Amino acid sequence: MVANQSWIDGSSVDVDESADFIVIGSGAAGATCARWLAGAGHSVIVLEEGPSAQVTRGDGYELTTKLLRDGGGQTTRGADAIELIQGRCIGGSTTIGNAVHSPFPEREWRAWVQQDVRWAHRLPWDALAQVRDILDAEQAVVKTPPELWGPLGQAFLAGFPGQAAPTWRSAPNCQGSGRCMQVCPLGAKGSVDRTMLDTAVLAGARVYAQCRVDRVIVSAGKATGVVGTFSSGKKGTWMAKRAVFLALGTLQTVALLARQGLVVRGPGLQMHVQAWVAGLFPGVVDGVGGTSVAMETHAFRDEGLELQSIRLPKAMRARLVPGVGPALVDRLAVQNRVGSFSLSMRAKARGRVAATRDGSAVHYDLLPEDRKSLLRGVSLLSEAMLRGGALEVWPQVHGAPCAVTSHKQLHAIEQLSPDPGRMWLTATHFFGGVDVDDWFALPGISNLVLADSSVFPQSIGVQPRAAIQTVASVIAGRWASV
Ligand SMILES: Cc1cc2nc3c(=O)[nH]c(=O)nc-3n(C[C@H](O)[C@H](O)[C@H](O)COP(=O)(O)OP(=O)(O)OC[C@H]3O[C@@H](n4cnc5c(N)ncnc54)[C@H](O)[C@@H]3O)c2cc1C
Ligand code: SF4
């Protein structure tokens, strides 16, 4: 990993340029595409709406105001109001991510091929496996070592005996400060600004930050460039000699297409939905070392559940502390003894993304079986937290006791009716289900390439960054080679 940070932060003049490839978005997909396209000798311009990533010295609120789209305040439209968390900065969501790497599961790829045999030649497994190995090496993906498990990771390990395992992460120099979501203060995390974008810049790519792309220029059924606006108000026009790559993140990619009236077909949006369980431990579990996400278990993958230990910024953790009046004050006074576990549930529901004037409206209603899965996940996490040593566990489920101290009390959670609105839910993993042609272009518009997980026909059930980078690599590699 290198760190030259030589992108161009905004502009005080109008810009009019051209390149072989224009890439919109500098996150997992965009930065990875730029790395392969520029690496193959093509001229590349990357346009990123957000600013250069800055380490937030404060807490969760500083993170939301500086680095999140809409301050993290956007929710789905539907019965469940799921908070949609997306990075809006150089490096995209990886800059505020936990750097966990889960390889694209081969069985998911097989399921894609079974449903539509074209995936076999669009994304040959051998090609995916080859770039996965290159990316893992370039991004120094390593297993979280015992000294970085911290008390919370140890509690998760004790909570899931024989089922928990350390995470694999791109953070080779991690010191366990547990502040990944606020941008690594030590530069130890392999967010793609450090692993991919820097490499692209060294190979000649130009990267503009604080430049929002407003629309793609389409002429005679062909994408020929893009028009954007800098945060200074200055305008930019970038013409693409070869292709325009959309890597805005699934929700924004689909919204941009919809805003222009371009027809998007396909089975529609899926997401992984996250919920949290917190608890009070007898000793200090936060602020005494341990990386952000040290432990996970795949034991419940067949049920669509991924479970992890997670260190949250203090302000976010405070949100999980129950009670009012003196009970709340007492619990907040010992916040460093509060730990949290999270679940990521592979929702079966499909939704859709519509454009608003300058953003997206996400219509998504969980199915009753999805809500049942969430209750199951919370029950599993709560039980594990008690087993892992918590004095009391806070399941965060409306209708369940707010503080649980015995395994007996937990059985009631899974018996609750799967009504909407029982939990605080968030989502950070999106899969667009947008139909594309064999060049990953929008059918009917040549040279308009969708390069992020908007093209994934369904969710994948694991942390998606590695899969997104792997797929983006194959897409960019194909365009780079002709
Ligand atoms: C808090 C958090 C923690 C996470 N932790 C993990 C983890 O540990 N492991 C894992 O595998 N996954 C994790 N993820 C998910 C992972 O980061 C994302 O799935 C992945 O980054 C998505 O890649 P992307 O390129 O599609 O979008 P992003 O990485 O979000 O990048 C899209 C970029 O496009 C830019 N953009 C959007 N619209 C425009 C426009 N009009 N003009 C110009 N630029 C635009 C955005 O500002 C953004 O920077 C996490 C996500 C979050 C939010
Ligand atoms: S846990 Fe701390 S040191 Fe490690 S990668 Fe995250 S922010 Fe950096």
What can be said about this structure in brief?
With 482 residues, this protein is an alpha/beta fold. The chain is built from 13 helices and 20 strands.
Describe this structure in words.
The protein has 2 domains: 8-71 and 86-99 and 102-138 and 175-265 and 433-480, FAD/NAD(P)-binding domain, CATH 3.50.50.60; 146-167 and 270-349 and 367-419, Cholesterol Oxidase, domain 2, CATH 3.30.410. 29% of the residues lie in helices and 23% in strands. The mean pLDDT is 94. The chain has 482 residues and is of the alpha/beta class. β2 (15-24), α1 (28-39) and β3 (44-47) form a beta-alpha-beta unit. Iron/sulfur cluster binds next to loops.
Which hetero ligands occur in this complex?
flavin-adenine dinucleotide, iron/sulfur cluster
Measured between the Cα atoms of the first and last residue, the distance is: 28 Å
| Low-confidence residue ranges | none
Q: What structural class do the secondary elements suggest?
A: alpha/beta
